[in-house]
Design a protein that fits this description.
The structure is a single chain. The mean pLDDT is about 90. By secondary structure, this protein is α/β, with parallel strands linked by helices. It has helices at about 45-55, 70-80, 125-130, 130-135, 150-160, 190-195, 205-215, 255-265, 270-285, 300-305; strands at about 10, 15-20, 35-45, 60-65, 85-90, 100-105, 110-115, 140-145, 165-170, 185, 220, 230, 235-240. It has ten helices and 13 strands. About 35% of the residues lie in helices and about 25% in strands. A nine-stranded mixed β-sheet has the order 5-4-1-8-9-10-11-12-13, sandwiched between helices.
Length: about 325
């Protein structure tokens, strides 16, 4: 089954090779552990979201950079096989492709170190050159695994083009920069929200209000097993519950969530319903190992929604 219409999604962001170690528990500082398995999976928050959006039925184009190395060849191939338009994915000579070092424990929790590599070569000038592609989007997806000045350039160019932006502000910015809040939908977790505002608010609702005052049109505060809190442009706050699943790897759950939300919202579905769809996609992503390989299909998300009798989210 596919959607009645295919929204056009442009993703500007990172593409990494994930080097994943499976361990019983996450290592503490100074501790050496013996892992059970080492695997390499295509990842990067931008590329994960692009693959997820394509699997959910969107027409997807990707703007990013890879290195002229074996990882770069594999990362491009994987995106193209998922149906992503990679004409704006440029190969940079003399620079390694982005890499993420990931530990995943038996509870499905993870610890991640990202080496940006070629992702750091995406510049504001590149964003200007990508305007024709960006201008065709129904929605633009953005994360923070590219340089901050480039992310801010994406927001400015999209505003000028009249294209709505969904920002997943991960990893959390090191310093408060409220210019990042000037987007149509802001989707932080609680840690990222505190980094954006410079303050740990006493409640999820207060946090969402602070982000909207900083400039966000809509706020979707991700709360893991507690679901999400949605604050829309009218000031209405809604709580969206999570789905109960047995997680094996949470590595790209947030990327599945954001991409699914974007696809449904770009297709004209009300934001709260789009968030519910995103919660289902994020939950499903935790039931599989890997990043892009764990991204669910449209039919898989519909099946979970039907199991939960959440039929209004698929109308």
């Amino acid at each position: 089954m596919t959607m009645a219409s295919s929204p056009r999604v442009v993703v500007v962001g990172s593409v990494n090779m994930d080097v994943v170690a499976r361990v019983e528990t996450l290592p503490r500082p100074g501790e050496t552990l013996t892992g059970r398995e080492l695997v390499m999976n295509p990842g990067g928050k931008g590329a994960n979201q692009a693959v997820a959006a394509a699997r959910l039925g969107a027409e997807v184009a990707f703007v990013g950079r890879v290195g002229a190395d074996g990882f770069g060849v594999e990362l491009r191939r994987t995106l193209e096989e998922a149906g992503v338009d990679c004409r704006q994915l440029e190969t940079i000579s003399g620079v390694a492709s982005g890499t993420a070092l990931i530990h995943v424990d038996d509870a499905g929790e993870n610890a991640i170190t990202v080496i940006p590599g070629a992702n750091a070569c995406l510049t504001p000038r590149d964003i200007k050159e990508a305007r024709p592609v960006m201008g065709e989007a129904d929605v633009l997806l953005l994360q923070l695994e590219i340089p901050l000045e480039t992310a801010l350039a994406v927001i400015e160019e999209a505003m000028d083009l009249g294209v709505p932006v969904i920002l997943d502000p991960a990893p959390a910015p090191r310093a408060v920069d409220k210019r990042l809040c000037r987007v149509d939908v802001l989707t932080p977790n609680e840690t990222e929200a505190a980094a954006l505002t410079g303050d740990a608010s006493p409640s999820a609702e207060a946090t969402a209000e602070a982000l909207r005052r900083a400039g966000a049109r809509h706020v979707v505060l991700k709360r893991g097993a507690a679901g999400a809190v949605v604050l829309d442009e009218s000031g209405t706050i809604s709580s969206v519950p999570a789905f109960s699943v047995s997680p094996v790897d949470t590595t790209a759950a947030g990327d599945a969530f954001t991409a699914a939300l974007a696809v449904r919202w770009a297709g004209g579905i009300p934001l709260v319903q789009a968030v519910r769809f995103g919660c289902a996609a994020g939950a499903l992503a935790t039931t599989k190992v890997g990043a892009q390989s764990a991204m669910p299909t449209y039919d898989e998300v519909l099946s979970l929604l039907r199991e939960e009798n959440a039929t209004k989210e698929i109308e």
